[in-house]
Amino acid sequence: MKLTRIALEEFRKFRQPMVLDGLQDGLNLFVGPNEAGKSTIASAIRAAFLERYSTSKVADLAPRGESGARPSVELSFAHAGHRYVLKKQFLSRARCELLIDDGAQRLDGEEAENALAALLGFEMPGRGQSKPDLAGIPGLLWIQQGDGHNLQEAAGHAGTHLRDALTQLSGELTSTDGDRLFDRVSAERAALLDARNGRPKGIYKDAEDALARAVAERDDCAQAMAQLNADVDRLAELRREHERAQASEPWKDFEARAVLARGQLAALAKEREAFDGLRREQGQAAQTLALLQDQVRRDQQDESDYQALLKEAQAARVRVQAAQEPLARAQQQRQAYAAAADAARLRVAAVQAVADRRDLDHQLAQLNAEIERLDDALKAVTAIIEQGSTLKTEAVRTEISDADIDALRKTERELANLQLRQQAIATRLSCQLEPGREILLDGKRLTSADQVLITAAAELELPGLGRLHIEPGGQDLPALKHELASLQAAWAALLDRLGVASLPDAEQRHARHGSLLRELDGMRKTLAIHAPKGLDVLRGQRDDALARRASLQERLAKLSAVTDTEQEAGLPDLPTATQALREAESVFAQADKTLAAAQRTLDTDSARAQLLEGQAARGTELQSPELAAQRQARAGRLAEVRSSHDELERRVREAQAALAEHRPELLEQDAQRFEKSASIERDAQHKRHGEILQLQGKLDQAGAQGLGERLSEATAACERLERRRDELARRAAALDLLLKLLTDKRAAATQRLQAPLARRLNHYLALLFPEAALRLDDTLLPTALRRGGGEDLLDALSFGTREQLGILARFAYADLLQEAGRPTLLLLDDALVHTDDARRDFMKRALFDAATRHQILMFTCHGEAWRDMGVEQRRIGG
């Protein structure tokens, strides 16, 4: 199959007609940037063949935002000696037309689409858009952008067509008696065995389940019988143990020994109570001892603190007396430095007043110049505004727009053209009269020198001879005259509306208007220079300047009143006076700090001395005779309590040693042990009695159920079901063996069927991976790549490698289809973009080799990478 021409119109981005013709038999390389329309062309080819013309689900084919569009595609191609032209239009006025051999045969609508589906090997959708599972051979060979790696799905959808082609090439039959036998054996085996794991299913599994249930029931009966015999033996043993325990009563001995242990514990409890009383008395004595020790320690600490406080108060009073003299000196120095600082401030104020008067004089001079400039600017702005108003009035009066001038010029050109056409069509009458002769044209006398153009019917009177009726020109002359009259009326109306007599007058007014506008623009710029923010702002600036000048004059008058020339002559300059003031203030500040520090020191020492003296005065209360007697009494009490505490501690140790000898915890453990033993013996006897009653009832119930008869019936059922299961097992094994033999035979036939495809795949694969091979499955799809002694599943390979193998496999499928006489066309839309430079060189060899047998349309945005393909690159989108 060879495409020769592609034409699109109103198809997505191609609103205007776009034609690609002169397509070559081999590789056709189309390059262009992103969004140039390459994928649109590929989509148009797919839509022309695969989409129904009548579907409304292809609105995306229309240009964006254009309602009522009619996307259309026209393809010219040839195959098997026939020439085809396919014309398909979608959406509005949808239609489909297929012309064969220059119109020798013409197919329309669904008939044409069905013929294309049979020719190329795909199926038309019942309704809506085409689906991938219907695309068949085109879906395999026409690779969409970013879909080159997806071989399994595309080849699966084209599997029927590929198998038909391989069958045609290899001679193998796709449907034979062997296949029917294989299907029957597979079905019968599938009825008995699971195809995934070979486990029983259907009636075979039912037989096994029934056998399992019967065996379980038999085992349950056998287990119940064995349990019944065990229960009889257990009942006899329990009766013997019950009678033996009832005769000996061992729990009574344990209870007596427990009572003896509890009596010994009661005697020890009284000794423990006496010991606990001693412990409590010892604790109280310890608390009293600690309290007295703390009180005596505080009495000693208070005496020590009082003596230290007296010494510290005396030292503080000495420091207060020593701080009086520095404070007096600091006060005298501060007074002297304050007087010097005040004198320096007076000198600086006088110097500053002189400097302020000079500065005010300078500011007044600058302000007067500014006021004079603002006055001049106001006069200039006022004059410009008045002149601009006059010019603006004249500009409005003389305004003629560019559109009106263009309309006048266009109308005058059209009038001239119509007049020239009228003159060319009109009848031209020239007069050459004998002397004394005359003729009349519509009553107007003509002389020998007149030349007249007749544009309408006229009467030519020949005195003495008669009249001539003249119909000038052809049929267009009346219409031309009417058009000329209409245009002249419009011309006159336009001149009247503009108030001019002719085009030159209008152009002169238009030129004058432009000149006025330029002059006004110059005035606006001049006005922006003098008053950039407007006349009101300029006036405000002038008023502000006048106000500031009045304020400065008032301040100057006040300064002149307090300073005179004599004072100014005797004063130092401002920097000298300021420096002297700074030095005086610095010395004064230092003296002030010294005075403050001396005052703070005195205040701190005085406060500290007063505080310590107050505390010492309060401490004299501790030296009273009453408090001294109390301290003496507490010391004597401490000695008595310490002696009593030591005696109690000795008695506690002796009582604790006596209790430890009796080991009361062991007696408690003995009592608990004997009590538990008695309880266990009683519970065991009660339990044996209950178990005897339970076993007796169970044996009575088992005897009523007929366990022996049930066991015999269950054993018979197991034997019967086991024979049925073995029969089905033998049948399943036979079917499994037969299926394996048929599968081996079928695999050999499939291998012969795959031979042509494997040969073509290895041809292309050797260009990319020498010493490698592709493994095919039963559906003729590549599943794994064998290389280097190992095998990699296709899904485990990188995206770029899968894309390269997918394209090579499509070349092989195309070779097989071509050998079987089927049409082939390869479309590669931005393929191999994930390929490195080395792999791309190998793929170029494969692409060039495939192009010697097939027509290939390749669309790419990487034109530089494909310049060495030996074909001219055709640019899309400029």
From TrEMBL:
Entry keyword set: Coiled coil
Coiled coil regions in record: 221-248, 327-384, 535-601, 704-738
Sequence ranges assigned to domain Rad50/SbcC-type AAA in this UniProt record: 5-80
Residue ranges with Low complexity bias: 627-636
InterPro entries: P-loop_NTPase, Rad50/SbcC_AAA
Keyword DNA damage set for record: no
Residues covered by region (Disordered): 616-644
Family annotation (Pfam families): AAA_23
Protein's name according to its UniProt entry: AAA family ATPase
Organism the protein comes from: Achromobacter seleniivolatilans
